[in-house]
Amino acid sequence: MAGDLLITRANLLLLLLLLPVILPSTAVHGVPLPDPCAGRRIHVRRLPARFNTDLLRHCDGAFPLADHPLATPACASLANHGLGPRTHNRSRSWYRTDARLLEPFFHRRLLDRDCLTDDPARADAVFLPYYASLDALPFLLDPAMLNFSAAHGVALAQFLATDRPRVLARRHGHDHFLVLAGPAWDYAQPADTDPRLWGTTSLLRRPEFDNFTFLTLESRAWPWQEHAVPHPTSFHPSSLPRLRAWIARARRSRRTALMLYAGTVSRPSRPNIRSFILAECANRTDTCTVVDCHGGSCALDPVRSMRPMLKAKFCLEPPGDTPTRRSTFDAVVAGCVPVFFEDASARTQYGWHLPPERYEEFSVTIPKDAVMLGGVQIMETLAAVPEEEVARMRERLLELAPRVMYRRHGSAAERMREASMDAVDIAVEGALRRIRGRVRALEDDQPEAMYAMDDDNQEI
After folding, report:
1. What is the distance between the alpha carbons of residues 175 and 127, in angstroms, rounded to a whole number?
2. Which residues form a coiled coil (predicted)?
3. Together in a domain, 112 and 83
4. Is residue 349 assigned to a domain?
């Protein structure tokens, strides 16, 4: 009898030890465990294929990389869920990436995330997998469609208003977000513009989307619904060792050139900061490297710009047609200290990814007016920066590099997220934070707080 009781007690003790494994516990010592998905549940809205996957048919001659004579076949850009083809067969981190395909890539990465829910009523945010920049192509490429570019987004607005309208009406769209693979200016032409301006649509002017959060490659200064995310580079590591190996290579690279400019080298029709840079570099080829990236050649062949960046101390990032540049993020990944000529090129754009108050720790700013009107010499300014200060800036830059690159989807994603969030992780967390603030303001009947932009310059 005593033996039977001893066995029973032993079995009971074993059961108590195994119970957390057999039945995952929701409490420890009576205290409920925190819900890891609280405030972070995302519903990925199911849209008809005409709003996303059907749009990929434009790859046959319309994608930017197809415009370059050295391009791989246009539809090859779709490989690897939008990362493009590998730069060479043995590569597992470098791809010929077309920035316009950020939308399908971002969609693919969202589907990999935890805390997704099929029930929009339980969701804290609703993601719209709308490939907006691809849907704009007919208005940009077909002259017969130019006068109808104000209609960009009308079909999506009609669908959202009629298909399960409660999803949109529940929070009046304040919980909706999507990605726009281009500068916001290209989608903000006033709807009543006549004649229509080539190269732009009126998507962001549609009143149906006023409350949505748009993650764009470049935002405008004032609209509260936009926030900039980094331009995609060609570097998309699939594992933490690959990421660390690259950063180690960038850290130990010998920097023999003082500065580098990578971009279009054609002379502008009127003087601007780029023309002053090219003039300085033409006179001092021993200290300045120029890489011609016209026609998307550096995206097609990242070695073209990345190798020189690894050998340069500073990378010049002048504004072009718009203030921001992909080259800025190539420079970060290469450990080449970026040199900005206006705040709109990065500091006022990417507050979630790069801390605005700490730019002096990893970059140099030379106001363009000081160069163009004040006679400041870029080379002299950069040569005066002490070597130990350059080394400190490079180290800080490489610490930030994982935050601006887009990790490849794959099995090692969770380990990499534990080490450092990438551009997608940070963009999603930023959108969720912004949405939570708006929803609270909506529920508290504080409309003025809904349109606050206090979070724009807060690092995630």
Report:
1. 8
2. none
3. yes
4. yes
The model carries a pTM of 0.88
Please give the Cα distance from 258 to 254 (Å, whole number): 11
Judge contact between 460 and 444, C-beta under 8 A.
no
* Domain containing residue 350: CATH number: 3.40.50.2000
pLDDT digits (tens, 9 = 90+) for 291-337: 998 877 888 889 999 999 999 999 999 998 899 999 999 999 999 99
Name the E strands within 318-408.
Answer: 337-340, 364-365
Please name the amino acid found at residue 450: M
| Closest to 81 measured CA to CA, from 412, 441, 406 | 406
Identity of the amino acid at 265: V
Report yes or no on 141 lying in a domain: yes
Is 410 part of a structural domain of the chain?
no
133 and 271 belong to one structural domain? no
CA–CA separation, 68 and 255 (whole Å): 31
Q: What is the rounded CA–CA span in Å between residue 368 and residue 342?
A: 7
Please say whether the beta carbons of 184 and 226 come within 8 A.
yes
Residue matched to tokens 């539809």: 75
Question: How many independent structural domains does the chain possess?
Answer: 2
Residues 213 and 246 in one domain: no
State the chain's maximal CA–CA distance in angstroms.
101
Mean pLDDT, residues 178-196: 93
- 316: containing domain: 240-404
Q: Which residues contact 104 (CB under 8 A, 6 or more apart)?
A: 52, 53, 56, 78, 81, 82, 131
What is the per-residue DSSP string for 157-191?
A: HHHHHHSSHHHHHTTTTTTEEEEEEEEGGGG---T
Tell me which amino acid residue 44 is.
Answer: V
Q: Are residues 155 and 177 in the same domain?
A: yes
Q: Across the chain, how many H-helices and E-strands are there? A: 19, 12
In a domain, 32, yes or no: no
* Contact yes or no for 306/330 (Cβ under 8 A): yes
Residues 156 and 109 in one domain: yes
The answer to whether residues 276 and 191 belong to one domain is no
Query: What is the per-residue pLDDT across 95-132, written as a single tens digit (0 to 9) for each?
Result: 999 888 899 999 999 998 899 999 999 999 999 999 99
- Residue type at 260? L
**Other beta carbons within 10 Å of 179:** 26
According to DSSP H, which parts of 301-357 are helical? 303-310, 326-334
149: exposed, middle or buried (Cβ count in 10 Å: 0-12, 13-18, 19+): buried
3-state secondary structure of 218: strand
* DSSP 8-state assignment for residue 227: E
Counting beta carbons within 10 angstroms of the beta carbon of residue 429, is it exposed (0 to 12), middle (13 to 18) or buried (19 or more)? middle
Q: Is 214 in the same domain as 363?
A: no
Q: Are residues 143 and 286 in the same domain?
A: no
